[in-house]
Amino acid sequence: QVQLVESGGGLVQAGDSLRLSCAASGRTFSSHHMGWFRQAPGKEREFVAVIRSSGGVTYYANSVKGRFTISRDNAKNTVYLQMNALKAEDTAVYYCAADQSGFSYVAYARAGTYDYWGQGTQVTVSS
Predict the structure, then answer these.
(1) What is the rounded CA–CA span in Å between residue 75 and residue 62?
(2) CA 4, 15, 82: angle at the middle one, nearest 5?
(3) What b-and-e string marks burial along 6-20, b requiring 16 or more CB atoms within 10 Å of the CB?
(4) Tens of pLDDT along the chain (127 residues)?
(5) Best exposed site among 26, 36, 37, 90 by fewest CB in 10 Å?
(6) Which residues pair with 78 in a beta bridge?
(7) What is the reported pLDDT for 54?
(8) How far, in whole angstroms, is CA 14 from its chain's centroid?
(9) What does the alpha-carbon distance between residue 40 and residue 86 come to, in Å, rounded to a whole number?
(10) Spatial separation of the C-alpha atoms in residues 70 and 79, rounded to whole Å
(11) Residue 104 confidence (pLDDT)
């Protein structure tokens, strides 16, 4: 069982930066692939980024590529999402998620791939 707690959200202006954190409980964090998803009002939850358990491989949604960076610190059981050059369309609740299965190049962007979810943190970007 893994429990995830996100933090770092807030209200910022377009062009600003934020860093989200996701703290995980449990001793198996380093074996989980970790993803970030977001959900805007009236929209489906969408993939943002994923980092493999070793931390060496990352993938991003096209909409955030070049602006967001996912990273992890396995010693601290924490995954981060550095968000730069924020836009109004980045406004959403951001969730971190943990995948305890083998990494899937086909399914890493699907919410159903992940086994554990945090409660989410709100990010609001004003234009």
Answers:
(1) 29
(2) 30
(3) bebbeebeeeeebeb
(4) 899 999 999 999 999 999 999 999 987 888 999 999 999 999 999 999 999 998 789 999 999 999 999 999 999 999 999 999 999 999 999 999 999 888 888 899 999 999 999 999 999 999 9
(5) 26
(6) 23, 73
(7) 84
(8) 20
(9) 15
(10) 7
(11) 85
Query: How far apart (Å, rounded) are the C-alpha atoms in residues 71 and 13?
Result: 24
State how far the Cα of 49 lies from the Cα of 37, in Å rounded to an integer: 7
**What is the token pair recorded at 92?**
């959403």
